[in-house]
Amino acid sequence: MTLLQRDDCHLCDLALEVLAAARAPEFESVFIDDDAALEARYGIRVPVLRDEPSGRELDWPFDAEAVRCFVTPPAADAPSC
Q1: Domain range annotation of the chain
Q2: DSSP percent split of the chain into helix, strand, coil, nearest 5
Q3: In 18, 42, 59, 81, which residue has its Cα 20 to 30 A from 68's Cα atom?
Q4: H or E element at residue 73
Q5: Edge-to-edge order in the sheet of strand 57-59
Q6: How many CB atoms lie within 10 A of CB 18?
Q7: Which H helix or E strand runs over 23?
């Protein structure tokens, strides 16, 4: 799991708080400021939570429940989030 963010980003700080509240599994923080490719792709979309293996992304704004649904694959017999 990767959190794409910027330096000095208030929304990114809020996203970190939400991830903590959701008890999200460990994730890598990637700052897009000095990477032209990431800057072009994500620009003002950050913060974005990205699942690298699947390529799925969760754009801000998200809450703890959305994060839990994003990081926990649904069981076959459970309703999807």
Answers
A1: 2-71
A2: 35, 15, 45
A3: 42
A4: none
A5: 28-31, 2-5, 48-50, 57-59
A6: 19
A7: none
| Residue 18: CA count within 13 A, CB half-sphere | 22
Please report the sign of the dihedral spanned by the C-alpha atoms of residue 35, residue 38, residue 41, residue 46.
negative
Token pair of 36, please? 């032209």
User: Does position 17 have pLDDT exceeding 80, yes or no?
Assistant: yes
Lowest mean pLDDT among 6-10, 34-38, 52-56, 73-77: 73-77
DSSP 33-68: TT-HHHHHHHGGG-SEEE-TTT--EEESS--HHHHH
Q: Full-prediction pTM beyond 0.85?
A: yes
* Distance separating alpha carbons of residues 58 and 47, to the nearest angstrom: 9
Which of 3.40.50.720, 3.40.30.10, 3.10.20.600, 3.30.470.10 is the CATH number of 2-71?
3.40.30.10
